[in-house]
Amino acid sequence: MTTTEPIIIKVAGPLVVADNMQTAKMYEVVRVGTEGLVGEVIRLEDGKASIQVYEETGGVGPGEPVKLTGKTLSVELGPGLLETIYDGIQRPLKVLEEKSGHYLARGIDADGLDQNKKWDFKATAKAGDTVSEGDILGTVQETTLIEHKVMVPVGITNAKIKDIKSGNYTVTQNIGTLETDGKETPVQMRQFWPIRVSRKVSAKRIPDTPLRTGCRSIDMFFPLVKGGAACIPGPFGSGKTVTQQTLAKYCDAEVIVYIGCGERGNEMTEVLNEFPHLKDPNTGEPLMKRTIMIANTSNMPVAAREASVYTGITIGEYYRDMGYNVALMADSTSRWAEAMREISGRLEEMPGEEGYPAYLGSKTAEFYERAGAVECLGSDDRQGSLTVIGAVSPPGGDLSEPVSQNTLRVTKTYWGLDKKLSYQRHFPAINWLKSYSLYAPNIDKWMKENVAEDYWTIQAEGLNLLQEEAKLEEIVRLVGPDALSTREKLVLLTAKSIREDYLYQDSFDPFDAYTLNDKQYEMLKTILTLFREGEKLMDIEDFDFSQIQGSDVINELADLKLKEAGDVAGYEAVRANIRSLVEGLAG
Ligand code: ADP
Fold this sequence. Notes:
- The chain has 587 residues and is an alpha+beta fold.
- The protein has 4 domains: 7-72, Beta Barrel (Elongation Factor Tu (Ef-tu), domain 3); 77-111 and 201-439, P-loop containing nucleotide triphosphate hydrolases (Rossmann fold, 3-Layer(aba) Sandwich), CATH 3.40.50; 119-187, CATH 2.40.50.100; 451-586, Bovine Mitochondrial F1-ATPase, ATP Synthase Beta Chain, Chain D, domain3 (Orthogonal Bundle), CATH 1.10.1140.10.
- The chain is built from 16 helices and 26 strands.
- The strands form 5 sheets. Strands 8, 18, 19, 20, 21, 22, 23, 24, 25 and 26 form a 10-stranded mixed sheet that branches. A 6-stranded antiparallel sheet has the order 1-2-5-4-3-6, with no helix packed on it. Strands 12-11-9-14 form a 4-stranded antiparallel sheet, with no helix packed on it.
- Strand 1 and strand 2 form a beta hairpin.
- The site of adenosine-5'-diphosphate has 14 residues, from helix 3.
């Protein structure tokens, strides 16, 4: 018997091929097999559709039906996103667990937003106003930290508000009616955005504000901006996850989207267990009140991993459009690329480098280009930013592999984590000789105005000493330390202090984990005083360097990190001690 109904003809892991799919559209969501697994059409040819399936396909076979839904893969956006942990296709893990227990059953429907919870909506627009997509209709206090802005949904231009009312509503109830050319559209607090296309903006702005992370190495030497993109490559165990999590905890974005594309299953479990208990050091509120998490462990289907970065970034764009600074962490994008490779292989596409699809580069670029500082859609000059920080785990730490290379091409900040440093337990293991940031010109003005006029002089001096140290170490290796001049010894001593007293920072020490920019500047300036003052001793013949090396100021430099940020007099006192030490030695 032949059928004209959509029907499965082949199953290959996460990829299912169905026939009689003439009416399907590209990227349409379909329900696959008798269990109704969630899938997405990713190729259409002669009535046959290749479907990427977001759930395990074991046991699904040819002859089973496929149902079209007419919808593209979208996220449901509205109050209730914050504090939620989702899977790659925005199903709340808690709901999945309630419905199926720890072993994920298949074909489960779970709405992205709680459909029953009532929110206190306060209308800020009024009847008679003319509004378009992106304009704000009203607000909801979503958590103690974030006021949610309810925006005019996609596709509406120059509509007149017929009615709008404040009150307690669920996300599916109508809060008002919009009218365009006599046609009425009821609006709710929720809306749907497709995940694979970037959200329109009024304009892109040049980023001009640092994303302050509290990490001294990052903020001072390799800064990131609000709206920028950064890449953290590093071999296994070098600190990618710890760095991403530390940024999620401390960086001064208002909303955090954390996408965990599991390295190992248990690693994501650690994050899931730990994060809900963390408190925001500034407000004392639970960090989840500003956070949305997307969890993909390695035992979840590969296609859901592929989708998760898009789900996450679309949610990020949504909060950015409210006018917030959003930071998105993706750990690790290599797992995302591997998912792409696996699906591309099943599609029998022509493989590119190392088996990755030829479009790996363009997909990577498209993803990072969704970062940016923007003028949001809407008529009120709202500005927001979306910063993207992607970890990359190159096999064996070899950066010449395609995922690292494609990521480096499109990100302007590079924090290279180093195996050797992490072996030595120098954390964060950011290699200061290889890492870079191209954003310094963007934040030149901000740093001068908000921290210090000579900020960049201090920064450059610090970095130069570290570079000089690397060269001198080579000489020491060849001919031993005795051949060094006083100046060279001073370079080594100061650089050592920069490494040990400034760059070394323990993410797990609540006081040390976060350092304000002012304190970073004071610390580095104080360490550099050793070099600046010490240079006065260079011309003394047969100078006994141990007089500096063994002096108390060296211990004082080691304790700089213990001082409070505002203790300007404390830092100045150490500088004064250095000056008087040198005066004494200079005789
Ligand atoms: P990766 O994600 O690169 O595999 P992890 O982030 O899991 O590596 O880090 C491995 C270990 O290194 C952590 O368990 C922790 O002990 C240590 N570590 C990494 N970064 C830091 C840091 N900034 N401060 C203290 N310890 C760190």
